Amino acid sequence: MAKRRGGRNVTGVLLLDKPSGVTSNKALQQVKQLFRARKAGHTGSLDPLATGLLPICFGDATKVSGFLLDADKRYVVTCRLGVGTDTGDAEGEVVDEQPVPEFDATGVEQALAGFRGSIEQLPPMYSAIKHKGQRLYDLARQGIEVEREPRQVQIHDLRASEVRAAEIDLVVHCSKGTYIRTLAEDIARALGTVGHVCALRRLGLGPYQDPGMWTVPELEARSESGLEALDETLLPMDSALDQYTGVELADDLAYFVVQGQPVFVPKAPTEGWLRLYDRTGRFLGMGQVLDDGRIGPKRLVARR
What residues pair up with 78 in beta bridges, in sequence order? Predict the structure, then answer.
């Protein structure tokens, strides 16, 4: 007989303020242990150097974590000029040093203008992309470099919040799949030098813009008052889906949906993903409009 997994059946979304110097997975495991949760996952890794917003999904909320993986993200980043590293950030080995040309805010703006909108990026070797079954960062650590295909990403907003002699603070709003380290390196190159990321903080992800975040020490302090105090930090799982239209289902339609059957909902949107609720306001899960106009349930929440 298989061993039953221990832990609580807790459901919700925690907006964790990840500290620098730890991996996203380590931060996840710390929080999962604090909550004594049976099931938890994060929504896209932050580099160990980076700090800031790392949503942790507990229980049924893991079913909607993929929607956050696909969401836009917002960062503040400091790019140090004149020094290039093999990883593109301050944790790597210095591989290049070049003089930093004199420039002013106007010169920086001219450089940044070329990186707004739809751009192509070459994924760095120090990334989690797989090549023939192996992670690129594993190959990079072995001194192996392979060809990578450029990827198209969207830079919705890019501006300099402060310009110093050898550093630039940037605000970036971008699509999923954007490599901030690569962006910083490319901007430095456009300014006539090399550069790397020396500080990175994620401030927003999808529907969570400038949210209140919880640090691990804050959670540890709350845990001293019991698990209920910790559970009060959780947001409902459908908070991760505010960008999608919500649809209320009549009782008969809700019945069929929870059985996994597509339904036709009068006056509902005719395309895309939808949040589905019963008449009491209980979140049932996500649905997707099918070719015939019916709504097909795709990510249902377990009934309690």
Answer: 169, 199
The neighbouring-strand residues paired with 185 are: none
Residue 274 neighbours by CB under 8 Å, 6+ apart: 244, 245, 246, 247, 268, 286, 287, 288, 289, 295
The 3-state DSSP class for residue 157 equals strand
* Residue percentage of the chain with pLDDT more than 70: 91
Lowest mean pLDDT among 51-60, 93-102, 130-139, 192-201: 130-139
- CA dist 107 and 23 (Å) reads 36
The overall pTM is greater than 0.85: yes
d(CA 158, CA 164): 17
- Beta-bridged to residue 201, according to DSSP, are 51, 76
Nearest to 68 by CA among 216, 202, 197, 159: 202
Domains and CATH numbers, the chain: 12-70+208-238 (3.30.2350.10), 73-205 (3.30.2350.10), 244-300 (2.30.130.10)
Give tens-digit pLDDT for 36-57.
999 999 887 888 889 999 999 9
Active site members: 47
Q: To 10 degrees, the CA torsion angle through 110, 116, 118, 123?
A: 90
Cα–Cα–Cα angle for 259, 265, 267, rounded to 5 degrees:
160
